[in-house]
Amino acid sequence: MAEVSMTVNGTPVSGNVPDNTLLVDFLRETLELTGTHVGCDTSQCGACVVHVNGRAVKACTMFAVEAEGAEVATIEGEAAPDGTLSAIQQAFQDHHGLQCGFCTPGMVMSAKALLAENPKPTEAEIREYLEGNICRCTGYHNIVKAIMAASGQDVSKIAAE
Amino acid sequence: MYEVIITRPRSLAEAIEALGDDNATALAGGQTLIPTMKQRLAAPEVLVSLSGIDELSGVTIGDGEITIGAATTHAEVAREVAGACPALAALAGGIGDPAVRNRGTIGGSLANNDPAADYPAAVLACDATIITNDREIRSDEFFDGLFSTALLEGEIITAVRFPMPERAAYAKFDQPASRFALTGVFVAAGGGVVRVAVTGAGEDGVFRWDAAEQALMKDFSPSAIEGLSPDPSGMIGDLHGTPEYRAHLVGVMTKRAVEAALG
Lengths: 161, 263
Prior knowledge:
Shape of chain B: globular
Number of domains of chain A: 2
Strand content of chain A: 15-25%
Helix content of chain B: 25-40%
Order of helices and strands of chain A: EEHEEEHHHH
CATH architecture of the largest domain in chain B: 2-Layer Sandwich
Number of helices of chain B: 10
Radius of gyration of chain B: 18 Å
Number of strands of chain B: 12
Strand order of the largest sheet of chain B: 4-5-8-6-7
Order of helices and strands of chain B: EHEHEEEHHHHHEEHEEEEEHH
Structural class of chain A: alpha+beta
Shape of chain A: elongated
Largest sheet of chain B: 5 strands, antiparallel
Oligomer: heterodimer
Number of helices of chain A: 5
Number of domains of chain B: 2
CATH superfamily of the largest domain in chain A: Beta-grasp domain
CATH architecture of the largest domain in chain A: Roll
Largest sheet of chain A: 5 strands, mixed
CATH class of the largest domain in chain A: Alpha Beta
Distance between the termini of chain A: 53 Å
Distance between the termini of chain B: 47 Å
Radius of gyration of chain A: 16 Å
């Protein structure tokens, strides 16, 4: 067992968990933050993407103890406390960037990482950046469109039209 | 996965001591090891995490060479060598996906020596030196067949030193599901020497394609590769491609790499 402490969405948290606890299980089971999803559990699908010290990572492929002392950001930290959606979340809603919604937490966290690195990505750059996020509904066109819209770009000419 | 004890040393010396335990395995970025443990293909009793050791991380760009700490992530390499060695930056920036690149490390990739990993091609083509806690190993001596290297028990890579090539490029034919190389070719030229390293194709892992090296040393152009094709025997055959297909890809990707290196 290991005592693990980190900051999640700005709040200091800790827990005593077996060493082999994955970060995603620490978030979901110990902290009961179930917005971060486990899709494939093989680091392919990206439903579990969270940020650790500002970098997007797959929380199913990192041990919780390796996030000791880290700043972790999950989908639960995206909306304002009053429920107002973040710009990316709002764009996903406005442009129907989700169908079943299972991949959405990872998509939003990857989109956030992309826009932090590249505030005005092209459609091709968005598609390339989302290589590690799989939408089983195949709703990619509107996801790409939502991310372009969230970056303040004109989306009237992209593939989904 | 099975139960495991994870230790997080803060210095290289502590890590080496922890790895003295016969049941201990080094954990770098974990992007291969953790999935392998989930599948129960690996069941170490103790993991020694190398991610908290500052002295193992970072890129130093010197006079004609680049030294990359073993725990440096692919994303960091892609960012930090973009000016000094664009071919190496492009290779690092094409591994896996962005989230994988934020955890996976150069040392972890090389120590694992997956036959379809990208870094082995860069190391072998550039004739980089693998620096461990104990010694320096030339690229030609380091790779030792499938998932096997010259590293001894308890020995870990601390850094990799790349001579800066005059011309270089990496051309990769992605396996689209895994994003490993179905076949990848790194071509590096410098000081009158050309080295061509192939990953993803050989049953024994990364290898140098001697015939292409000889041809390119006479004439560094895509046409020098015309008519050359490596022997398919010894190439990987699986559901993604036959040995003949991979042998063909080696020629195609070598040409593309030479074209890109000529810029």
